[in-house]
Amino acid sequence: MRLLFTAATDTGRLRPNNEDAVLTDAELGLAVLADGMGGYQAGEVASRLCCEAVQTSLRADDGPAGAALGERLRRAIEAANQTVYDHARHYPAYRGMATTVVAVLIDGARLAVGHVGDSRLYRLRQGQLVGLTRDHTLVQEQVDAGVLSAAAARAAQHRNLVTRAVGVAPWVDITLTEHVIAPGDTYLLCSDGLHDGLTDAEITRILCRAGPPAQTVQALIDAANAAGGHDNIAVVLIHCVPAVPPEDDACPR
């Protein structure tokens, strides 16, 4: 099994600049996606700094030998948080900037995901799309408490009000989970510009279409823009390519 990384961002139809950033590093087995926020240009600075700092930290990681995959990723996101926080303190134009992040680190058949905010990770396996992250948003807390239904949450006015972000404080609360990957899996990292515009069923149909990965990424972006393109759109796909192609991918037709 080999891993194939494909990534792209798009400004969308309404925003003047792109505050989403993506980074992939096949050698590390790393994919990072960040959705920045802040004043003039600060959001795009925060997201870029976050992605680069995660990669830099993992490349320089001198932690305990054999450290758990999730702990390595935690240290990298904590380092990114410190980088964004320090940058905002030292440069007045960037004060108040912050970013979401979702990062995946793969080693063999193990996958660790760390996230802060409402950028997401999905897994497509045998035609079934499953969310592997849970948004850190006020609306998600209301859903969890039974105050809002999932359907009502999609239309809530403040559905993108995050309760956690990278760079707002010297520490950050990261949610980490680990999973076992399987040949044929596809993993999708995306910003809210994608998952707010498209339903899970629409995302599944696009992912299940046969075609080159770059074409699939562009199809997701095009669909989000066709749905209004109200925000920047960021997409990373990780295809776990099997040694022998499956006879049936079980995707809905």
Automatic annotation (TrEMBL):
Keywords: Hydrolase
Domain PPM-type phosphatase: 4-240
Lineage: superkingdom: Bacteria
Molecular function GO labels: protein serine/threonine phosphatase activity
CDD domains in UniProt: PP2Cc
InterPro entries: PP2C, PPM-type-like_dom_sf, PPM-type_phosphatase-like_dom
Database matches in Pfam families: PP2C_2
PANTHER family xrefs: PROTEIN PHOSPHATASE
NCBIfam families, per the entry: Stp1_PP2C_phos
Protein name: PPM-type phosphatase domain-containing protein
